[in-house]
Hints:
Layout: H1 3-6, E1 9-18, H2 22-30, E2 44-49, E3 58-62, E4 77-86, E5 91-99, E6 107-115, E7 118-127, H3 135-160
Antiparallel strand pairs: 1-7, 2-3, 3-4, 4-5, 5-6, 6-7
Amino acid sequence: MDPEQQQKWKGKAIEILAGPKAEQVWPFLEDFFGLNKWFPTLTTCLPVEGISGQTGCVRYCAGFKTPVNNGDEVVNWTKQKLLSIDHTVLTFSYSIIEGNVGFNSYIATVKVVPKEDGCNIEWCYEVEPVEGWTLGDLDTFISSGLQVMAKRMEEALHAQI
Length: 161
């Protein structure tokens, strides 16, 4: 058996924001039920359980496109649970608890890292190998999604000025 199929896939995406401070970006991310404002092609992000930003809350996300859709008209969806959140170090972890995209045992940690001239957003993830995907597909999906999220957050902050 291929060793890649025997162990979890792990990856990390980092997006550098020049200018915006970590404390300006964090409110966008800590709004757990507001992901559809930032993630590309995600049309729906609804509360299922709990209060946004509190450990244990669950969101329903739908409408996003993946690298393996190939023009299919399937509506991708997941339910995601907030596992932990720490407002002092600007980080949270969540897992996908249900969905139709094949992400089994998916856990991600998102962190905003302060820098002298702005901040970085780091998205670390691990998941069991996903049928029909490669690790490269997943890396592209996460990194391109994070890139668009960072750009939209920068634009939202500029609009506030």
